[in-house]
Design goal:
Blueprint lengths: L1 H7 L4 H19 L5 H14 L12 H15 L20
Helix pairs in contact: 1-2, 2-3, 3-4
């Protein structure tokens, strides 16, 4: 996610912090047995939104933009057509498809 934000805008430390928050939310969702992309997207978006004061000063996107990106990324990884909420899903460096 941080790579996407860095490419879409400019490299910023806030992108790493936002990605870490999204990762924590994703991992917690999956550990609790969640598999539904929409539920995971909502969890990520709501988690970011609840902490938005940590990110808002430097971010060019909203918590919901990030959640939409997560949904696109997960559906792409699952081999399902995305809703194209994001311009382009970025494959992380070193990540084998």
């Amino acid at each position: 996610m941080a790579q996407w934000l860095d490419q879409e805008w400019i490299p910023q430390d806030v992108h790493l912090r936002m990605a870490e928050c999204a990762k924590e939310s994703y991992v917690n969702s999956r550990l609790s047995g969640e598999t539904d992309v929409m539920s995971i997207m909502m969890s990520v978006s709501e988690s970011l939104e609840s902490r938005w004061s940590e990110f808002s000063d430097d971010s060019f996107v909203s918590a919901w933009d990030v959640g939409n990106y997560v949904a696109d990324y997960l559906t792409l990884r699952a081999g399902v057509e995305t809703c194209a909420c994001s311009a382009k899903v970025v494959t992380p460096k070193g990540f084998d498809d």
